Amino acid sequence: MELLQLLYGTNIIRIEDKIKSIAKEYVGALDDFNYTKLNFKETPVEQIIEEAQTLPFLADRKVIVVEEAILFTAQKSGTSVSHNIDLLIDYLKNKSDDTLIIFTVLSEKLDKRKKVTKLITERGKLIEINEMNESELTNYVRSVFDQNGLEISTEALNMLLEKTSYKYEAVHNEVTKLVLYAEGNITTEDVEEVVSVSLEQNVFLLTDFILKNEKQKAVRLARELILQKEEPMKLLHLVIGQFRLLYQVKILNGEGYQEDNIARALKVHPYRVKLALRHTRKYPLDALLKKMIVCRDIDYKFKSSYLDRNALFELFILEI
Hints:
The protein has 320 residues and is an alpha/beta fold. It contains 15 helices and 7 strands. Belongs to the DNA polymerase HolA subunit family.
C-alpha cells in the first residue's frame, strides 16, 4: 500500500468512509494508539513530520490523517500557523518511516502546478471522491437495509432518492433514520413519514409550481420554507439558479449534448440535469429567457428596495 495518499472531493461523509476503509486495511482495528487526526490549518508541518516519524506505542503500525490539507489546492492559506512547506517537501521526497499519511481536502480539484502536488502524485496515490450515481446509490441503500434485515420497495426507494436529491450525505442520514424507525419492509408511507425533503428538492418543487402557473401552491411552499428559517434572499438566488440551469440545459440539449455531458459541462449533479431536462422539453427557449429577465429585475429590487423581503419574494412568485 502507498504510504502517502491524498483524498479530495466535496462529499465529506464519503471521504470519511474511505479514510476508515484505507486505515483499517493498513492497521486493522482503529484505536488511539494507531490512528491520529491532525488539522493542517492548526498543526505546524514540523509537528506533522515528528508525529509521522515517532514509533507507534502499543501498535505495529499507525495512520495519520491530515485534514484540510489546502496546500494541494489553489486556496489561500487561511491557517493559524506558519508552515514550512519546503520541509514537508523534503520529508515527502525522503520518507522512510512506516507511517501511513492520508491527506484530505474538501475541494473539487487540486492545483497540479504546485511542486508539493506533483510530488505526492509521483510518490503517493491520489483518490478523487465523487458523488455516487443513481445506480451506486441504489445499491448502497439496498445493502444497508439488507445488513439490518430490512427490505425497501422500488417505489419507496425512488421516493427516498428524490426527496434527498440523490445526494449521498442526505441519503446516508435518512437511511440511518429509516433503519431505526422501520420494521420489516420499508414502504412509501414510511419514507413519507420519516425522510426530510432537501432544500434543493423544495426549490425544484417551487420552480415546478411557478412554471405550471400554480401560484397558490408556490406561495404556500415559499411561506413554509421561510417558517423553516430559510432567508428570502437565499431562496430567490436558488430559484434564479434553477431557472438559469433550465436555460443552459435547454441550449446544450438543443446542440446535441447528452445528460452526462451536460452535467460535466455545467459542473452540476447529474440528477439536477435529469430533472431540468424533464422541464425544458415543455417550454420554448424564449419563454425561459423571459423568466430570466424577471429574475434579473426582482434581484435588483431585492438589493435596492427597503420593502419587506418576504413580501418581495411572494411578489416575485406572482410576477414570474
